[in-house]
Design goal:
- The complex is a heterodimer.
- By secondary structure, chain A is α/β, with parallel strands linked by helices.
- Chain A has a domain of about 100 residues.
- In chain A, about 30% of the residues lie in helices and about 25% in strands.
- The longest helix of chain A has 18 residues.
- Helix content of chain B is about 30%, strand content about 20%.
- Chain B has two domains: about 220 residues, P-loop containing nucleotide triphosphate hydrolases (Rossmann fold); about 110 residues, no CATH class.
- Chain B is built from eleven helices and twelve strands.
- Chain B is of the alpha/beta class.
- Classes of the chains: A alpha/beta, B alpha/beta.
- At the A-B interface, α5, α6, α7, α8 and α9 of A face α7, α8, α9, α10 and α11 of B.
Chain lengths: ~350, ~350
């Protein structure tokens, strides 16, 4: 059963200009029509490069940014239609873990007060002692000793701070935790500790995760289903294994081939698909397929004019490319990438 | 003769009211002409400070530098400041992590690229501009003539890093130091930049010292790799050896911590416990001992030496792992089976 459902979610930020009278001169299409659903107890991984809208999407689910249009359904309730107060209550069941553990913890609050805040706001626990017992219990679950209670965020290492961030989300007994780049600020040896912790907590509490990250290896490690985002839209979605073994969208292929693998044997044997140029501006996204300006498989006409729908090509595998099947079958050949050109090579 | 020899380099930060901090604690390594060497470690291991010390870019106040650095037979650390400035940018060049803060925001790209050419080659005016355009073209920046007149903020992150590389290679340096050159970039852009660096090094025969925390980056690019921990080299080897057969438990632990894109799913990661804060002074023993699963009392009696183990492979550990790799105890992830090194 899907616990979280996004339907044609759009978040557009106005670009304003003018000194006295602000006029809206355009919009940044941060999230531009994303539909996906997350199964209860599973992990949905959202990957993409900076500027693809993945963080905005995560924040929009919790309505930390305003939704322009579309629906976010949590167990059937449309979060987009809730009043402020109702949404505030719903947040005890939908929690978030942020990227920067130091920046997201108040430096002047000790750990107990950081964790107690949510409990007080949501009226959980009868007394202070009651809440403290719950906090100690949660800290233990995330691998922190109870002597952490009276300490402040700066006294902890990066990995421990992220554990505090996780504890803050966990203490409210949420159903869904949105993890925005949960390990990207951490060193690799510590990264693995936090990833293992997230997995442990999921199996202990039956949590549902929406993990947002740029690191494909991290996402593949913990996700059941992966969605790949490019310029505000989902370009491909598949089970974690299938996405890796049989990527169908050219962008996914390029992304997979760009991730360095810590193994010289594999690295030497790999064939890289270098995609030229940079991400176009989300305020004036390219017409047609948003990836056509960088796509090595781009075909004339259709790719420039018609935006491909995310369509199901196999059970549980959706892709937004007009020519996904032809590319998979090898009927279309990629142009050799002209590595650093801003303009796509002309056909 | 090696191009660069670093012998027992140490850097200590001393504050007036603070305990001195030894960021680099006796680093020694050598680099041959045309070699690509990786310096790998996590934050706080001293990799960046090492590179700044090599370039003579550390402030003179509050920093004590010890040890010797020889570049092409010249003792770099005893050079007068003038001679060192002549050398930097022409023979030795550096690329930094953050391309935006390494460029002057109020000066057009063109003037920043030609500055090196003016300073070291005495090129002026049109000749310098043409050469700068050639360089931008060489590093794959489209429409170089137009880009020369633009300011850093008008370029994307990848383009800025290309511009920095163009400046670094302007005078065909013999040694290029790249400090986390792709960390601020997205993976697809990272792939472009790594491709460019590899290609430049191969075609020009430049030596490259690649400083990174990313084991994946060094696996594809470097000939040899030094792994740093708490300011010392703890393992040095060819890349093939290091990844197939890591001897130091820290190296093995790092490899076991990285989720691999090509690994079978569901395989648990084997993290290193604790954090870089859990360390002891090298004088008292092995700095990694508090986090090590293989430590014995022997680890806490004085500094372990860097000992050779096979062709071009050295490690600083008294209880090394994977010394005799059988199929059972050295799997492809490099993590270590229990009871692996009973002595």
């Amino acid at each position: 059963m899907s616990v979280l459902e996004l339907e044609d979610l759009k978040v557009h930020f106005p670009i304003r200009s003018g000194v006295v009278f602000e006029r809206t001169v355009g919009y940044v299409h941060a999230v531009d029509g994303v539909s996906l659903s997350v199964e209860a107890g599973s992990t949905y991984g959202l990957v993409g490069e900076s500027g693809c809208g993945k963080t905005t999407l995560g924040r929009a689910v919790l309505r930390l940014v305003d939704i322009t249009s579309g629906h976010v359904r949590f167990e059937g309730t449309d979060l987009a239609e809730l009043s402020g107060e109702q949404m505030r209550r719903a947040r005890s069941r939908l929690q978030m873990v942020f990227q920067d553990p130091l920046g997201s913890l108040d430096p002047r609050q000790n750990v107990e007060s950081i964790l107690a805040e949510g409990l007080e706001v949501h009226g959980i626990g009868r007394s202070r002692a009651d809440r403290r017992a719950k906090i100690v219990d949660t800290l233990e679950r995330v691998g922190l000793a109870s002597n952490a209670l009276s300490r402040y965020p700066h006294e902890f290492s990066g990995g421990q701070r992220q554990r505090i961030g996780i504890a803050r989300a966990l203490v409210l007994e949420p159903d869904v935790i949105i993890c925005d780049e949960p390990v990207s600020a951490l060193d690799v040896s510590v990264q693995a500790q936090v990833l293992n912790l997230l997995e442990e907590l999921q199996s202990a509490f039956g949590l549902t995760y929406l993990v947002i990250a740029h690191d494909l290896a991290v996402v593949r490690h913990i996700s059941d289903v992966i969605g790949v985002m490019y310029l505000g839209g989902l370009v491909e979605e598949a089970g974690a294994d299938e996405l890796y073994t049989e990527p169908m969208h050219p962008y996914t292929k390029a992304l997979l081939s760009a991730v360095p693998i810590p193994d010289p044997v594999v690295e030497d044997a790999r064939e890289q698909i270098l995609i030229p140029g940079d991400l176009p501006s989300p305020s004036s996204p390219p017409s047609g397929c948003r990836f056509h300006t960088r796509c090595p498989w781009r075909q004339p006409e259709r790719c420039d004019t018609e935006r491909p729908e995310l369509r199901e090509v196999a059970p549980g595998h959706r892709v937004a490319c007009h020519y996904a099947e032809e590319i998979l079958a090898g009927e279309l050949r990629p142009r050799s990438a002209d590595v650093a050109s801003d303009t796509p090579p002309r056909a | 003769m090696p191009l660069l020899t670093v012998d027992n380099l140490s850097v200590t930060f001393t504050g007036d009211d603070k305990r001195p901090v030894r960021a680099v604690d006796g680093v020694s390594f050598g680099m041959d002409e045309g070699e690509v060497l990786g310096l790998v470690g996590e934050s706080g291991c001293g990799k960046s400070v090492t590179s700044l010390a090599l370039m003579g870019l550390l402030p003179s106040r509050g920093v004590e530098v010890g040890g010797r650095v020889h570049f092409d037979g010249i003792d770099v650390r005893s050079l007068p400041a003038r001679r060192l400035r002549d050398m930097r940018g022409s023979q030795l060049a550096m690329i930094f992590q953050d391309p935006l803060s390494s460029l002057n925001p109020v000066v057009p790209i063109g003037r920043q690229v030609t500055e090196t050419l003016r300073r070291h080659k005495g090129m002026r005016g049109k000749a310098a501009r043409e050469r700068a355009a050639e360089l931008l073209d060489r590093v794959g920046i489209p429409d170089p003539a137009r880009r020369l007149t633009e300011y850093p903020h008008q370029l994307s992150g990848g383009m800025r890093q290309r511009a920095l590389i163009a400046m670094a290679v302007a005078c065909a340096p013999r040694l290029l130091i790249a400090d986390e050159p792709t960390t601020a970039l997205d993976v697809t852009i990272q792939a472009q930049i790594l491709d460019l660096l590899g290609e430049l090094v191969r075609s020009e025969g430049t030596s490259l010292l690649m400083i990174t925390h990313d084991l994946g980056v060094v696996a594809g690019l470097c000939d040899n790799i030094n792994v740093l921990y708490a300011g010392r080299v703890i393992e040095a080897s060819s890349r093939q050896q290091l990844f197939a057969n890591p001897h130091h438990p820290y190296t093995a632990g790092l490899l076991g911590s990285v989720p691999r894109l090509d690994a079978p799913r569901g395989e648990a990661l084997t993290p290193i416990r604790g954090s870089i804060n859990d360390t002891i002074d090298w004088n008292d023993g092995c700095a990694f001992a508090p986090r090590c699963d293989h430590y014995t009392m022997e680890c806490l009696t004085g500094t372990p030496e860097l000992v050779p183990a096979g062709e071009g492979h050295q490690h600083r550990c008294v209880n090394p792992v994977n010394l005799d790799p059988g199929p059972a105890d050295a799997d492809r992830h490099g993590h270590v089976a229990e009871g692996d090194n009973v002595r």
